[in-house]
Design goal:
Blueprint lengths: L1 H16 L3 E10 L4 E2 L6 E6 L5 E11 L6 E9 L7 E8 L1 E2 L3 E2 L2 E3 L2 E7 L4 E2 L3 E9 L6 E2 L1 E11 L1
Antiparallel strand pairs: 1-14, 2-13, 3-12, 4-10, 4-11, 4-14, 5-6, 5-12, 7-8, 9-10
């Protein structure tokens, strides 16, 4: 029994020692009919309690291989604790190159992209509200399955 307990403890130590970040939030919103209209703005809410660490914020995007562009332009709206209005940040997210093709991970004809939206941030304690709007010239933006937000605590 002691050797079994030792193996379990050793396995747990090994598993956790390889982690560099701790996930604190990830949520995805399905895109109706896989056509993302610019009027559809998925919203994400979460609370920050730990102010001693920094956070990384990612866009999570799933699309098919029929997506028509190598990038996506988005507006990221952020409303933090004590703010009356949201701040808007425009981002151009690279999804593919001519040399490498799709940059995300894929299975069959579906690709998932995780792209960092900001440098690591120090956040104040409190409630945060994020919204994502696509601002591409094609509206609706076809072949987008879902969009999400991922926030990781930097270790």
């Amino acid at each position: 029994m002691n050797s079994f307990r030792f193996l379990v403890i050793l396995s747990l130590i090994t598993a956790f020692s390889g982690c560099t970040t701790i996930d604190i939030y990830e949520k995805n919103a399905d895109i109706p009919a896989h056509e993302w209209k610019n009027s559809f703005r998925p919203e994400f809410d979460f609370t920050i309690k730990d102010t001693l660490t920094r956070y990384r914020v990612y866009l999570v995007l799933r699309h098919t291989d029929k997506y028509n562009f190598n990038n996506i332009f988005i507006n990221l709206y952020v409303k933090g604790p004590g703010q009356d209005t949201a701040s808007r940040f425009q981002r151009d997210i690279l999804l593919a190159t001519n040399e490498k093709g799709w940059l995300g991970t894929g299975m069959d004809d579906i690709y998932e992209q995780r792209r960092e939206l900001t440098q690591p941030l120090s956040l104040r304690a409190g409630d945060y509200h994020f919204a994502i709007e696509q601002i591409m010239r094609e509206d609706p933006l076809k072949n987008v399955l879902n969009v999400g937000l991922r926030v990781e605590k930097e270790k």
